[in-house]
Amino acid sequence: MVEFSECAKAMRGSEIRRLMKLGSDPSIISFSGGMPANSLFPIDVLDELYNNLTKESRQAALQYGPTNGYPPLLEALKEYLKNKGLPLEGQDLLITTGAQQAINLVAKVLVDPGELIITEYPSFIGALAAFKSYGANLAGVPLDNEGINLDQLEQVLTSRASQIKMLYLSPYFHNPAGIVYSPKRKNDLLGLLKGKNLVLLEDDPYGELYFNEADKKLTVPMKASGNETVPICYVGSFAKIFGPGLRLGWLLGPKDIVEKCEIAKQSADACSTTLSQVLAAEYLSKGKLGPYLDYLRPVYARRAGIMLDALEKHMPENVTWTKPRGGFYIWVTMPQDIDSSRVFEESIKRGAAFVIGSAFDPHGSRNNSFRLAFSHTPEERISEGIQIVAESVKKVIGQSINKSELSTALN
Ligand SMILES: Cc1ncc(COP(=O)(O)O)c(C=O)c1O
């Protein structure tokens, strides 16, 4: 028998990937994967960009590149980040292999086994897995509709001050909760963090995907507030605004942290795929991002609207859900004693899939919620799929009521 390292022993296969496999049967209406629909990708833009590359760019695309990133992409991305109000002075930018690698590298260079990372509950499963792989302890602080609960955060900050290394948040159209932080919550949070000895990891892959222009102001990153009360590592991605298959993200943060991440990246993959970087540089510098976002936003808004209407129509009264103003997700919460795994089993039999809630719990236990993604399901199938999920919820709630009536009768 192979004896695995302590790190490897702490690794667990992703629940999402297992369930995505179940949900990938084409006869199943899937709300599982957090991804765009293939039909939404800007393939004409990709053709145009590639076909117009110079010979030198094509050669560069097949060559190794600098670990910190292909220089024209770094330049184009700096321009983009500057326009979002993000500070570049005193900061470094690193191109990463997806936002996932940025999260992984920050945890790798900052967190020792046994140290504490505070996350939201629920939280992004890929980040939880990365943190656990470095032996971090996790504390999940609940979210409400405006962001992380500050009273409970303060309690953890006070009671476990000496162990805390990092706070990981995804404030803009959260995965899986779908919420966006209110300006007040962000402001109060920065106030609360003042003088605390930790790093804030601000993860922002969905911020561009607001449904209404009026909500753009809600997506201003805390890193852009000019009030950096603790060091902030800001993470972004091309996954939802170009294509996840490019595997491109970025990390903007204090120089010392980003330099360490660059060294760690050298031994991980030497550099992110240069072909992707060449295309992303052209995509930004030729002004292709703006029009693509203008195309995507109403598509996702419509899908979310159809899903919300169907939930309203079909879900029983004691079930609640978030009302996203952007992004990909709706988070559904059932009564405390209802297990979303049982709802999942029922739903998959009837032909619809989603992701169970415990996958997003840093402690892997709470399971009375689940995540619905509206981003990749054809519009005409969303209502039918939600009806199936709602019938499955009703059935499991009905069984639990029958069970509790039976035990009352027996007592
Ligand atoms: C909150 C969050 N962070 C990071 C990522 C990873 O993004 P990437 O595909 O760029 O690695 C995702 C992907 O779904 C995500 O939802």
Q: What integer is the average pLDDT?
A: 95
Q: Give me the CATH superfamily of the largest domain.
A: Type I PLP-dependent aspartate aminotransferase-like (Major domain)
- The strand order across the widest sheet is 2-9-8-7-6-3-4-5
* Alpha-beta content class: alpha/beta
H-E string: HHEHHHEHEHEEHEHEEEHHHEEHEEEH
Number of helices: 14
Percentage of β-strand residues? 15-25%
- Ligands in the structure? pyridoxal-5'-phosphate
Instruction: Give the % helix.
Output: 40-55%
Low-confidence stretches: none
* Integer-rounded radius of gyration: 22 Å
Query: What is the oligomeric state here?
Result: single chain
Number of domains: 2
CA(first)-CA(last) distance = 50 Å
Any descriptors?
Aspartate Aminotransferase, domain 1; 44% helix; 8-stranded mixed β-sheet; 2 domains; Aspartate Aminotransferase, domain 2; 411 residues; 14 strands; alpha/beta; binds pyridoxal-5'-phosphate
Quick rundown:
With 411 residues, the chain is of the alpha/beta class. It contains 14 helices and 14 strands. Strand 10 and strand 11 (329-333) form a beta hairpin.
Topology:
Layout: H1 6-9, H2 15-23, E1 29-30, H3 43-51, H4 55-61, H5 71-83, E2 91-96, H6 98-110, E3 116-121, H7 125-133, E4 137-144, E5 147-148, H8 150-159, E6 164-169, H9 183-193, E7 199-203, E8 232-237, E9 249-254, H10 255-269, H11 274-285, H12 289-314, E10 320-321, E11 329-333, H13 340-350, E12 352-353, E13 355-356, E14 369-373, H14 379-410
Bound molecules: pyridoxal-5'-phosphate.
